[in-house]
Write a structure and sequence with these properties.
Layout lengths: L9 H7 L4 H27 L6 H24 L10 H25 L12 H20 L8 H23 L10 H7 L2 H5 L3 H30 L12 H12 L1 H8 L11 H36 L8 H7 L2 H6 L15 H7 L1 H7 L6 H13 L1
Helix pairs in contact: 3-4, 4-5, 4-12, 5-6, 6-9, 9-10, 10-12, 11-12, 12-13
């Protein structure tokens, strides 16, 4: 009788209510459908006297930008096999493109996550898709930054990408399984090391085992190996290697290890924390911290490289990376870069200015905190170019 009256935890409710997925997904779809309908009507009413087909104009506008975005993404990714041929400034541009696109994908997938269209078993599938589309690129960037000094660069880049993707995929599959990782006792297992009789692993254990194996390979083999290569080839003193690279690797290493720990504690893993409200909060904090700090440190790598280029020209004022942003324009820096040779257009020097010329930036520039004198200087600079 007491067992029947035992309180039900939130974790159990999350699993037992997973059958309502269709209801929630349909409700979200109807909400999106209403948004599209009223948005189209609003556009038609707003621009009916100015545009012949305002709705189709908006659709073509969105289609063009989506096409350009994915075109630039795949064009950039298509140059990964040649990164060992290029100088650091080009490799930094490659990584900057991936960072820009990765953060944009994360933003859109996070927004789509509100619809709960992929919340099978009440597990946020959009979160895992975001991981699968951005985390392998993050690990790939760490290899690309050292591409010229990495033995068998293409092989290591491929292995790193696939191991990261497989880790995240198996983690998602394990999250969908409604069972503990083992039915036995961990204390007894540590005393006897009898896996079958004392730990009694479940199917979920064997599914998630490759994921933990993958994160171990990344954290304790590949990342230390990259740091060792960086140190053996001169580290920060090597002008073709990024300054601050080891700290970038440390950020990835320390923050990424927090994800499997939190997964084990959450209701998706061992349900140590039964309060499901903190589950998504924890993953959100880790996601923002890891990707945000990685992007910030990657940006600083570029700043330091720009400062080193300025110092090489004998410009003592710009040895501080922070001063480069204020006193040296991107155009002035790129004037003195070494010849790039046969560089794909998507990561060439000219590609650095395409964003400044885009319609999106031109619209935002009207609302930016910029003085008229600075705006005139920018126009003169790009006019000369």
């Amino acid at each position: 009788m007491s067992s029947e009256c035992a309180p039900v935890t939130e974790a159990q409710l999350q699993r037992s209510c997973s059958g309502l997925y269709v209801t929630h997904a349909l409700e979200a779809f109807c909400g999106v459908l209403m948004f599209v309908f009223f948005a189209v009507v609003s556009i038609k009413l707003h621009a009916r006297s100015h545009l012949r087909s305002p709705a189709w104009a908006f659709i073509r506008f969105a289609k063009l930008h989506v096409y350009n975005f994915f075109g630039e993404f795949f064009s950039t990714l298509g140059t990964v096999g040649r990164q060992d041929e290029f100088k650091l400034d080009i490799r930094l541009r490659f990584c900057s493109n991936l960072d820009k696109m990765g953060n944009a994908l994360s933003a859109w997938l996070s927004l789509l996550g509100i619809t709960r269209w992929l919340s099978l078993g009440n597990v946020n599938g959009m979160r895992y898709i975001g991981y699968a589309m951005t985390c392998p690129l993050t690990q790939l960037e760490l290899v690309v930054l050292l591409a010229p000094i990495v033995p068998c660069y293409r092989i290591l880049a491929t292995i790193t990408f696939l191991v990261t993707f497989s880790t995240l995929f198996m983690g998602y599959i394990a999250s969908l399984m409604w069972m503990p990782l083992w039915d036995g006792y961990l204390e007894d297992f540590f005393q006897t090391w009898d896996l079958e009789n004392d730990l009694m692993p479940t199917s979920k254990f064997w599914v998630v085992a490759p994921a933990f194996g993958g994160i171990s390979v990344l954290s304790f083999l590949i990342l230390p190996y990259l740091c060792l290569l960086h140190a053996l080839h001169g580290g920060d003193n090597n002008e073709d290697l990024p300054q601050g690279y080891k700290f970038l690797v440390f950020l990835v290493w320390s923050l990424w290890l927090c994800f499997p720990v939190w997964w084990l504690l959450s209701w998706e893993g061992m349900t140590v924390i039964t309060d499901t409200k903190v589950n998504e909060i924890g993953f959100t904090i880790l996601n923002i911290s890891s990707k945000g700090l990685f992007t910030l440190q990657s940006f600083r790598l570029g700043e330091r490289h720009d400062a080193r280029l300025a110092a090489r020209r004998g410009n003592k004022r710009h040895r501080n990376p922070r001063e480069v942003k204020d006193k040296v324009s991107a155009h002035q820096l790129t004037k003195n870069w070494s010849s790039e040779g046969d560089v794909p257009p998507v990561i060439s020097r000219k590609s650095s200015h395409l964003l400044s010329e885009s319609k999106f930036v031109q619209v935002l520039r009207c609302f930016d905190d910029i003085s008229e004198e600075e705006e005139e200087e920018e126009e003169e600079e790009y006019g000369e170019e």
